[in-house]
């Protein structure tokens, strides 16, 4: 094969997703899904989608869901953008808003999709090291006429940045687009959505995949002032794409309406996380403070890959990243109490062997 053909595809470095096993008999703690099912109201909404109307295209603007989200977050018309999962929303953001002459800034340990998008869309980037305690220091982020993106809480560390620090970052960079990726915000952080009206440079991204138990439906959204949202709509319209199918649209509205179920799930997950942190700390692990539905942890003596393999042998899967500085850490999603007990029993056997 000539150099032309091999260069054509091999210069791209694709994202490597977490394993999605084909069997059901595993305790799956590797990709941060919600261990609890979606609200009963979501199932009812899905069932109520009238079959006959499935032959018709959905609303290309997903207006019903936009209105629901606008009301829920106290936003104005034109301040919400919707996509098929926040990964797709992020793709639109990278294409529409983050390509500049200046490099895009993001933490050196972060969501590994960001450099992949940069490769895909020809965006120059620069990583900014986290502090020794894996924190984002807002003072390290300064760029004129460029862009900044980070998850809050960060992934895979789980550390959260306080709203004051985000405000500082926004004020230090008034001429750059600042994207706060809040995939895990409902498990302990304070959302930057309350800052949207004050900062024209802020875009907040959220997803239904974690706190709303709907990773299987693919719903994500961005919130910001209308000049930013307009950029995303332009990219979407250039593809002539429909952000939501009829089923996802109905489910998305119902999930927001059932606030009590949502609150209950988040509380249970936070409680289980606290139990897991206590167990890990008592059993020789160091745990990075987490505001997410996962913990990032390493054992003081035992090898991370070895622990992951031993867990796998006991039908429990967790995530390991073969990356500098974090290759002794494991990221463990929070499961149900029963799954958590199975994890703790397995880890007890491993550390006391
Ligand atoms: N942002 C972060 C930080 C994530 O960890 C994930 C999940 N892998 C996403 C965005 C994408 O989530 P989804 O596409 O399921 O909405």
From TrEMBL:
UniProt GO MF annotations: histidinol-phosphate transaminase activity; pyridoxal phosphate binding
Signal peptide: none
EC number: 2.6.1.9
Pfam families linked to this entry: Aminotran_1_2
Residue span(s) of domain Aminotransferase class I/classII large: 25-347
InterPro entries, A to Z: Aminotrans_II_pyridoxalP_BS, Aminotransferase_I/II_large, HisP_aminotrans, HistidinolP_aminotransfase, PyrdxlP-dep_Trfase, PyrdxlP-dep_Trfase_major, PyrdxlP-dep_Trfase_small
Group of enzyme by EC: transferase
Keyword Amino-acid biosynthesis: yes
Pathway(s) served: Amino-acid biosynthesis; L-histidine biosynthesis; L-histidine from 5-phospho-alpha-D-ribose 1-diphosphate: step 7/9
Location of N6-(pyridoxal phosphate)lysine modifications: 210
Keywords of the record: Amino-acid biosynthesis, Aminotransferase, Histidine biosynthesis, Pyridoxal phosphate, Transferase
Cofactor(s) the record lists: pyridoxal 5'-phosphate
One GO term of the biological process aspect: L-histidine biosynthetic process
CDD domains for this protein: AAT_like
Reaction catalysed by this enzyme: L-histidinol phosphate + 2-oxoglutarate = 3-(imidazol-4-yl)-2-oxopropyl phosphate + L-glutamate
SUPFAM superfamilies cross-referenced by the UniProt entry: PLP-dependent transferases (SSF53383)
Membrane-traversing stretches: none
Record-stated family: Belongs to the class-II pyridoxal-phosphate-dependent aminotransferase family. Histidinol-phosphate aminotransferase subfamily.
Subunit structure: Homodimer.
HAMAP family xref list: HisC_aminotrans_2
Protein name per Swiss-Prot or TrEMBL: Histidinol-phosphate aminotransferase
Organism from which the protein derives: Hydrogenovibrio marinus
Encoding gene per record: hisC
């Amino acid at each position: 094969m000539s150099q032309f053909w091999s260069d054509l595809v091999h210069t791209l470095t694709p994202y490597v997703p977490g394993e999605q096993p084909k069997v059901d008999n595993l305790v799956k703690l590797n990709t941060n899904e919600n261990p609890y099912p979606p609200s009963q109201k979501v199932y009812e909404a899905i069932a109520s989608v009238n079959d006959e109307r499935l032959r018709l295209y959905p609303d290309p603007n997903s207006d019903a869901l936009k209105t629901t989200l606008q009301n829920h977050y106290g936003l104005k018309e034109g301040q919400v953008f919707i996509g098929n999962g926040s990964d797709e929303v992020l793709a639109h953001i990278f294409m529409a808003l983050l390509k500049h002459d200046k490099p895009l800034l993001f933490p050196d340990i972060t969501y590994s999709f960001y450099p992949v998008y940069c490769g895909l869309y020809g965006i120059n980037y620069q990583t900014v090291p986290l502090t020794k305690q894996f924190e984002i220091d807002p003072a390290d982020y300064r760029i004129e006429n460029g862009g900044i993106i980070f998850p809050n809480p960060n992934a895979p560390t789980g550390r959260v940045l306080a709203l004051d620090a985000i405000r500082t970052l926004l004020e230090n960079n008034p001429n750059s687009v600042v994207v706060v990726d809040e995939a895990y915000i409902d498990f302990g952080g304070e959302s930057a959505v309350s800052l949207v009206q004050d900062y024209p440079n802020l875009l907040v991204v959220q997803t239904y995949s974690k706190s709303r138990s709907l990773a299987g439906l693919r719903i994500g959204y961005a919130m910001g002032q209308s000049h930013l949202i307009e950029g995303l709509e332009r990219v979407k319209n250039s593809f002539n794409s429909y952000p939501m199918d009829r089923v996802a649209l109905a489910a998305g509205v119902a999930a927001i309406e059932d606030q009590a179920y949502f609150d209950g799930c988040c509380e249970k997950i936070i409680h289980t996380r606290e139990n897991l942190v206590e167990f890990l700390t008592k059993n020789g692990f160091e745990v990075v403070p987490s505001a997410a539905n996962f913990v990032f942890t390493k054992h003081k003596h035992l090898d991370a890959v070895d622990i992951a393999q031993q867990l796998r042998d006991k039908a429990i899967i967790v995530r390991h990243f073969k990356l500098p500085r974090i290759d002794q850490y494991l990221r463990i999603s929070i499961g149900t109490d029963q799954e958590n007990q199975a994890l703790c029993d397995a880890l007890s056997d491993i550390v006391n062997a």
